[in-house]
Amino acid sequence: MNQTPELSSPQRRLVLVVCFLALVFDGVELGLMPVASLSVSKSLLGADFTPALGGDWFARFTAALMLGAALGGIFLGSLGDRIGRARAMGVSILFYSVFAALGAWAKTQEQMLVLRFLVGLGVGGLWPNGIALVSECWPGAKRPLVSGAMMAGLNAGILMLSQLARAWPVTPESWRWLFQLAGAPALLGVFVLVALPESPRWLASRGAAKGPSTPLRELFSPGLIRLTLVGIAVSAIPMVGAWSASKWMIPWADQVAGTTHGGYKAATQGWWALGAVIGSFTGAQLAAWLGHRRSYFLISLGAVALTVAMFQLTAPLQPGFHTVVFAQGCVSTLFFGWLALYLPELFPTRVRATGSGLAYNSGRFATAVGVLFAGLLFTALGGDYAKVGTICAMIYALGLGVIWFAPDNMSKELW
Fold it and tell me: Does the domain at residues 10-196+212-405 carry the CATH identifier 1.20.1250.20?
């Protein structure tokens, strides 16, 4: 690996900028349905809409996206180890942008549900290939910084979307424009396919490979299975917590304030996303500073405390609500900057995209189940957002124990 050629400085910067933009648009896709779900349901269900049914469909849309992302992360991640990080990234961007745009012409909830699943394939495939490409193109000393910047891009997309929705409120009469806008990144996907440099480390690895590549099988071989299971466990907890607990604050804000404060739900998402930009950037630095185990433990503790506080100590329209939302967004997303640094270090180059995608996105299988369970719980509790969010916040507490099974002495260099 010492003889692996490196990209020039302009090429590395191009890779970083393009991957950052791809993750910004990835964040737009993740933030789209939390801010638009109730408006979409009111429009497509018409007279059949009820608040409880709206919450139930929010859970279904989220589950479909998470299931698609889980499958996309595994299979498009594997594609990145077979045909290259850049080409698999381009395919992922085209998936999430084209199918998002088609949502503007959805006529039924079921059509939208299928489209959200297809969007999820691209959302899931983008992360492992983008993170692997950037990690392999930048030297070890700078990886905490660039890893944090990448994850900040993801949440910058959610923040950007929230501000657009705040300026032009998403309503049952006006929501299709948002899906049309979400199709614009298809142009970036085409650029990535034809012009983005490939990882020299991946090219060298492929040149040295003997026999056909079977990355999924190798990840479950005796030499790597423990690392694979650890990666899945530490990724699943923040993923399930984010979507089964944290995201309920947005439809909660819409329910409480939507009729009197049209932009309140977008403002709520904006405050959370602003905290998330800071948190996802800082998480990688925190892991490098405190060590992997200690930092993950402290993040888990803070995420439990602030998520419970968000649902029990305040509420939409109360003066301190957005302050707590901001703090919860900051702390709960420290996990994702942590993962952007940790997961590429966990796996060797020949299976890095597959391993990172499998670990990061396997949590989305659990998330799909978790949000469906949360939707059933929401109905059983009579549509009480605060109770659902509080109960689901306990998922973060699992991280307090799981992290002690993870290796802490990872090399600063990739292997």
Answer: yes
